[in-house]
């Protein structure tokens, strides 16, 4: 196969839908290629991801979905990286789509000729008469009788089969290089279906058009396609020549699809169904908890996985969970707690060794989601251990796929495979986690072969790594947002001084006009483009677009230094003041560089800003005490919806209730607190979404925090290894596999 024959390459495509209940991986690591003039049948049940794959290639995935990773190479150009204007030049021109319902293509109030002429002229310089002639000829090419008469018709005057032929003809107007047909013959009778299949196959062969035919019907694929790819739960489970796959299927799901087809050779044979249903792509996945259900609005029952053992061989029971939740409310010596996840929990009791009953103070529909963020520790080890024992590794005892071996502070953690792990044995016998704070050093270690995988790849090294034949880069839209947190502490602050160098008597950051001025003075796009090298997206609120609670009415924050200066003057600071911003130097990728850029923007409007970088070990404790005037926080949005930050970052600090654990500036807004309370009790999804959107607007209007950008999570691995990225920016050994396995 020559390079010119290769029309389409889909590599590790992931299209996810970001919903309040989690991230739905509708297309998960799909790869295939297609040559000129070849036909690929994409087969699967409803919900398998086959149509979303087609829409992803066309660039037609609407919110809350988006292409989350991978490459779609059309004639060597990655469609996922094309600007919208360039992509539109290809859509309907070099790449066309035929939908299951032809009325998704046809406008019912316009004649066929008007629609076809418009489609022709959108991508060509033809005059009206030329375009009409071309449209008529294309109808004839599709075997449509009396094409002149059909041009003058309205869609409702055509039969279903004729409308679908017209839709295919519109797709063929520019003799595209690639056509994606999404079950276009499903609603037609078998005679019309056979005619259209024959015509489409002939056109593909004659014009060298690559064709993806999406269907649930293997019998259609058998007579049409050269290759077949079988999709199940968002993944391709079998792919090969049609005859080979249908004659000798290797995957049980493919065999199930074949067995469900009627046979003319065996009269009276019962049609077989595939047992069960396709797995849910949305729900929380069972772990140590196998299942959970509400018994009433304030009572939940959790069933635990039987047969699980701690690494020291003792059984895992409900007592371990109860102990973990009691300890998590207030970990001695910790700069933060897990109390925010447990703030509505009133009691946790064991019904039996593998059944928990949890009662809440108020109805809490998000309880399972919150509990997923609280890790379980063993009671028999924890009862005789303190925080120092955990930090040193002496109290580590888990149930996961790897056992703790050793910990060297600031250097590495060594782990060995747990062959008794309930979730299956890892291919890796030993895992060595190295702490390499310097981004350039991480890259150098990867390129030299000292390490196999690195995370938090420096944007300065992205181009270099992508060009290396021995490295593969994996990028994934993340949920982490970079925020600046102003201090809301009353009175003077040593880090807020006047132009005479003396502490200001009152905190200017308490004035919303000053906070808004600082926000308007930041050129976020410049930071994203120049410092992050576009490996991030500009943020105007703490949740990224298309997630649960994101408020589309909160507009992008403009870069407006003139308005910023006016606001400062209105607030009584026409000459500005001095500010010291504190950031960790060993925590956030491009954090110090971002802070320096912000300092320059603020200095230009009169707020002369100095940046002090501090090791995280010191920074976290002082920031948590509200010691700083302006601090930096890269917040992870761990639950994937807006209430997580409300509880931990924006709620009024209340340690007894577990609120505001990361509210380092001690922001307090009663309206936001009331909205949080209301959202917690709202089981109705739409009502809860509306409350969260309102809370986002409240914080935005009050400039409670200054959002800067949303990170992309970026990993790089040596050749031969494959990383399965996640919305979390953390790295687990189970994410890494040998490429091709």
From TrEMBL:
Membrane topology: Peripheral membrane protein
Family matches, as InterPro entries: AAA+_ATPase, ABC_Ni/Peptide_Import, ABC_transporter-like_ATP-bd, ABC_transporter-like_CS, Oligopep_ABC_C, P-loop_NTPase, SBP_5_dom
GO cellular component annotations of the record: plasma membrane
UniProt xrefs under PROSITE patterns: ABC_TRANSPORTER_1, ABC_TRANSPORTER_2
GO process terms (BP): peptide transport; transmembrane transport
UniProt subcellular location: Cell inner membrane
GO molecular function: ATP binding; ATP hydrolysis activity
Signal peptide positions on this chain: none
KW Nucleotide-binding (keyword) present: yes
UniProt keyword annotations, A-Z: ATP-binding, Cell inner membrane, Cell membrane, Membrane, Nucleotide-binding, Transport
Record-linked Gene3D superfamilies: Dipeptide-binding Protein, Domain 1, Dipeptide-binding Protein, Domain 3, P-loop containing nucleotide triphosphate hydrolases, Periplasmic binding protein-like II
Span of domain ABC transporter: 8-258
NCBIfam families: oligo_HPY
Annotated family: Belongs to the ABC transporter superfamily.
Name under which the protein is recorded: Dipeptide transport protein (Modular protein)
């Amino acid at each position: 196969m020559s390079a010119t024959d290769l029309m389409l390459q889909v590599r590790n495509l992931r299209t996810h839908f970001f919903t309040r209940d989690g991230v739905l991986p509708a297309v998960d690591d799909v790869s295939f290629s297609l040559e000129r003039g070849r036909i690929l049948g994409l087969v699967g049940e409803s919900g398998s991801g086959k149509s979303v794959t087609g829409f992803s290639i066309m660039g037609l995935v609407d919110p809350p979905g988006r292409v989350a990773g991978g490459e779609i190479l059309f004639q060597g150009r990655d469609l996922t990286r094309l600007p919208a204007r360039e992509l539109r030049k290809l859509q309907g021109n070099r790449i066309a789509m035929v939908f299951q319902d032809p009325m998704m293509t046809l406008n019912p109030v316009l004649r066929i000729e008007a629609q076809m002429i418009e489609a022709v002229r959108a991508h060509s310089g033809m005059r009206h008469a030329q375009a009409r002639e071309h449209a008529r000829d294309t109808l004839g090419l599709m075997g449509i009788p009396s094409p002149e008469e059909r041009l003058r018709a309205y869609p409702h005057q055509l039969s279903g089969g004729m409308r679908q032929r017209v839709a295919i003809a519109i797709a063929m107007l520019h003799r595209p290089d690639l056509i994606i047909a999404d079950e276009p013959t499903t609603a037609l009778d078998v005679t019309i279906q056979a005619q259209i299949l024959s015509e489409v196959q002939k056109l593909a062969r004659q014009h060298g058009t690559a064709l993806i035919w999406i269907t649930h019907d293997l019998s259609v694929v058998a007579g049409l396609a050269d290759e077949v790819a079988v999709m199940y739960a968002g993944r391709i489970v079998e792919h090969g020549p049609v005859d080979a796959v249908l004659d000798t299927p290797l995957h049980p799901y493919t065999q199930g699809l074949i067995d469900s087809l009627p046979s003319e050779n065996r009269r009276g044979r019962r049609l077989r169904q595939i047992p069960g249903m396709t797995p849910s792509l949305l729900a929380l996945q069972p772990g140590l908890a196998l299942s959970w259900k509400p018994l009433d609005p304030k009572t939940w029952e959790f069933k635990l996985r039987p047969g699980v053992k701690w690494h020291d061989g003792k059984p895992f029971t409900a007592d371990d969970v109860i102990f973990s939740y009691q300890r998590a409310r207030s970990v001695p010596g910790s700069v933060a707690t897990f109390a925010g996840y447990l703030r509505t929990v009133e009691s946790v009791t064991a019904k039996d060794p593998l059944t928990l009953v949890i009662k809440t103070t108020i109805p809490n529909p998000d309880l399972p989601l919150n509990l997923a963020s609280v890790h379980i520790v063993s009671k028999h080890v924890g009862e005789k251990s303190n925080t120092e024992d955990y930090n040193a590794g002496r109290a580590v005892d888990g149930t996961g796929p790897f056992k703790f071996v050793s910990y060297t502070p600031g250097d590495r953690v060594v782990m060995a495979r747990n062959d008794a792990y309930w979730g299956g044995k890892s291919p890796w016998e030993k895992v060595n986690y190295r702490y390499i704070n310097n981004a350039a050093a991480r890259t150098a270690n990867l390129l030299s072969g000292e390490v196999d995988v690195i995370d938090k790849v420096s944007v300065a090294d992205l181009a270099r790594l992508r060009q290396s034949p021995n490295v593969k880069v994996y990028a994934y839209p993340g949920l982490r947002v970079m925020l600046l947190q102003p201090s809301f502490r009353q009175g003077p602050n040593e880090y807020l001084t006047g132009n005479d160098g003396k502490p200001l008597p009152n905190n200017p950051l308490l004035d919303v006009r000053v906070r808004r001025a600082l926000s308007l003075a930041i050129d976020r796009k410049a930071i994203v483009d120049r410092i992050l090298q576009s490996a991030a997206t500009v943020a105007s609120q703490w949740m990224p677009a298309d997630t649960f609670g994101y408020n589309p009415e909160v507009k992008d924050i403009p870069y407006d230094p003139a308005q910023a200066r006016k606001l400062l003057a209105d607030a009584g600071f026409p000459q500005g003041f001095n500010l010291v911003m504190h950031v960790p130097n060993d925590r956030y990728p491009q954090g110090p560089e971002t802070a320096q850029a912000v300092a320059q923007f603020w200095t230009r409007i009169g707020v002369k800003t100095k940046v002090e970088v501090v090791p995280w070990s010191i920074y976290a404790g002082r920031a948590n005490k509200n010691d700083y005037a302006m601090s930096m926080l890269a917040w992870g949005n761990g639950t994937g919806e807006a209430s997580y930050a409300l509880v931990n970052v924006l709620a009024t600090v209340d340690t007894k209730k577990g609120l505001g654990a990361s509210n380092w500036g001690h922001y307090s807004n009663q309206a936001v607190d009331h909205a949080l309370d209301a959202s917690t009790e709202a089981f109705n999804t739409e009502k809860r979404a509306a409350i969260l959107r309102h809370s986002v607007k409240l914080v935005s209007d009050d400039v409670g925090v200054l959002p800067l950008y949303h990170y992309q999570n970026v990993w790089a691995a040596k050749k031969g290894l494959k990383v399965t990225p996640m919305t979390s920016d953390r790295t687990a050994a189970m994410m890494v596999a040998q490429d091709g396995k």
